[in-house]
Specification:
The protein is built from 5 helices and 9 strands; from the N terminus they run αββαααββββββαβ. With about 190 residues, the protein is of the alpha+beta class. It has one domain. A hairpin with a 5-residue loop joins strand 7 and strand 8. The longest helix has 20 residues.
Length: about 190
Amino acid sequence: MKRLLIVTLALLVLAMSAFAASSPSITDENMYDVEVIPTVPGVSLDGLVIKAIPETEVALKVIEQVQELAKGQPSFVNAVFADKIEEIKAVLVEGADHEAMKLQELTTLFVAGYKEEMGKLLVRLTFPTVFDEKDPVLVMIGMVENENVSWEPFEAKANLEGKIEMFMEAELLLKVQAGEAVIAVLK
């Protein structure tokens, strides 16, 4: 009986290993999702596409840049976003320590089909990282032009499901739609 149990457990472990090997990796696009909720009653979002796309050429270049800037520095935020510290403090929840925040996610942000009459949108972003609703988060959106990235901080929070929630105004959506952008999430 004991041998049968051991053999059964061994087969179960082998089956689970095979299943895990065929599962998507942490960078699989299927682990990224964007849900959009209009704030203007009755507005149609037909044709609107907002995506967080991992491992694009642009995102990988920006990741390299920020890692180089942060190398050996005690604070990622101070090293990478030095010219935005006051703006960052303004969007973080009271008591959040921006100096202790670390980069969790960085992807390309894609917007298409947005029209100004759609107004401000509530956007819920799902990443492989599950964020705790009690932890402060910082969202930085960077507009990419050649080798330069112009970063702006945005107020955001993690919800009960571990997703990032933020409002995106028309000005931001139109700017992202017209150019190349990345989104970084820190906690």
